[in-house]
Amino acid sequence: MSPGAVLIVMALLFLGFGYMGVPVSFALMAGVFAATAFTPISLQSMVGQLFHGIDSETLLAVPFFLLVGELMASSDVVQRMIRLSQTLVGHLRGGLAQVVTLFSMFFAGISGSSVADVAILARTVAPEMTKEGYDKAFSASLIASASTMANLIPPSIMAVVYGATGNVSIGGLFLAGVVPGVLIGIGLMIYSYFFGPVGVMKKRAKFTEVAVAARGAALPLVIPVIIMGGILTGWFTPTEAGMVACAYILLVLIPVLRPSHIRELPRDFMYAGLLYSLPLAAVAGASAFGWMVAYLRGPDIVADYISHYAGTDPRMIMFLLVVLFVIVGDFIDAVPAIIIFMPIITKLTEVGGINPLHMGAVIITTLVFGLITPPYGLSLLVASKYVGIGFGRAVVRSLPMYAVFFATIAFVVVFPNVVLALPKWLLPESVGCFKSPTGVGYICPK
Amino acid sequence: MADARALILQRHRHLKWPALDKLEAVLMVMCGVCISMFTLTVGCDVVTRTIGTPWLWLQQVTTAFFAWGVFFGMAAATRRNDHFYLSEITKRLTGAPRSAIEIVNRLIVLVVAVLLTWFGWQNALLDMGSYRMPSLIPLAVYTGIMPAAGVLIALFTIEQLVNGWRNGFEGPEDRDEIPEPTE
């Protein structure tokens, strides 16, 4: 069987098994093991490859950022951040919708998990939205769309996985995610203001109320400072920054703000332990899958195909990759998608002479869109389930919000200098700059 | 400390043997132990490095707990049906078509689990003679968790196959898990 045919068989088996209801990690492994039978590779080495896929210190950041989300969600410390959001934007048209978006921006700076964000908002703000007359489909679609920012605004689990598998600076990816994350947030706020339900109009909060709310939320809002401050000053790696954030929550936040939650901590750890194994089991399967894709020269086949249409034009290459990943993101979870397609992304980054950090920002922004698109829009599925609305109706209500994502993706593709400004300023090495021989400043690639 | 019964998921009870409940609880505790231990070791790593006497072996202990946690969690998630799924199509089916697809799905998982066990065991035997520097931890300490997880996954899959065959795969909670019919 030709390598191309083996690739197709492997992909079809994965998708076939996956859509039949086999768990994603096992569907990936089954596809790879079946494909191995048509190659000279031994099954023993492929099983070894599963382990090598997760044997990475960089991936350790994933459980820490999930643990931060789990601890924050279960201890209800985030209520204070919701209150702050209410005092800041609650008086605007569609007040609670604005609160959802602003809170998601704050929470994105603390947790790397969209699902944790959805769980918090669906439990706290969604019932209030229903009382104020927002229809449930709008609430679910807005909560899901806003939760995607958790994977863009640092810390982001997708950035950790992308950086670990693509050998790209994770700190740089964190910073490159800020612009698209904020753009999605602003876009959703504008959409809610002009096209969303009016809600109940409230009076603007007094300065003293804002100050009290800000003081209440100050302790949780230190977490983004710890994470990004530690990484940017070089004190911590992203993994260590995640651990320090957990330690801060355990030693400061919960004892001070919610001491009654301390006896629930063993349960939080057990569930976080289970929770992190789920994406990483998929990472193990996907890394073997990606290895097999590379072995069968999949990157060359796809790169040749894309180059045939795009030549070496970086924008055209990125446009075609965006189309590819919008489709891929509809069917596959983002983490395995990043790992499976990383050899192809790396090859096309070289062909187009694209900055790897810019490519990372484009791919991650495109994949977060997949969190709200059918049939496998994880955030929208979870939001519709929590809010109590049919998935189909939530999809229809989220269609206009897709415009925000398309505009953001286009912006990220077309304006690399804006997207890379923050990493270039704060982590110049991450964008390929090196120290000037004179010792003053950096020399950066154009 | 959480009650042991609270650690056992009551969803899909008809697919579970009570005899394996304790094993699920133990796996949940192990998930908690692993994440706690590698949080602690990463913390110690930062502290020892900051005070100028880094313990280099800490990173290798960390990755061991990390890997064990992934495979313990993978096994626990198999019993709890907590894995990521691309679709929940089977939950919309009833009767014979449902049973047929559920059985095929579990047979696929069973084959993967058997391969993980057999070839994972072969890899672990090979790794007995290799060590990680500077801690001199045998590589088998890391890779040995794969066949162990394979056995557990196979056990839980057989449990679901047998109980599903006897009691049917449909459960009262399936309706709640499908997003569509909630309105």
Describe the structure.
The complex is a heterodimer of chains A (about 450) and B (about 180). Chain A has helices at about 5-20, 25-35, 45-55, 60-75, 80-90, 95-110, 115-130, 135-145, 155-165, 170-175, 180-195, 205-215, 220-230, 240-255, 265-295, 300-310, 315-330, 335-350, 355-370, 380-385, 390-400, 400-415, 415-420, 420-425; strands at about 435, 440-445. By secondary structure, chain A is mostly helical. In chain A, strand 1 and strand 2 form a beta hairpin. The radius of gyration of chain A is 22 Å and the shape is globular. Chain A starts with a helix and ends with a strand. Helix content of chain B is about 65%, strand content about 0%. Chain B has about 180 residues and is mainly α. Chain B starts with 20 loop residues before the first helix and ends in a 6-residue tail after the last helix. Chain B has a two-stranded antiparallel ribbon with strand order 1-2. Chain B contains 6 helices and 2 strands; from the N terminus they run H-H-H-E-E-H-H-H. The radius of gyration of chain B is 20 Å and the shape is elongated. The chains are: A mainly alpha (about 450), B mainly alpha (about 180).
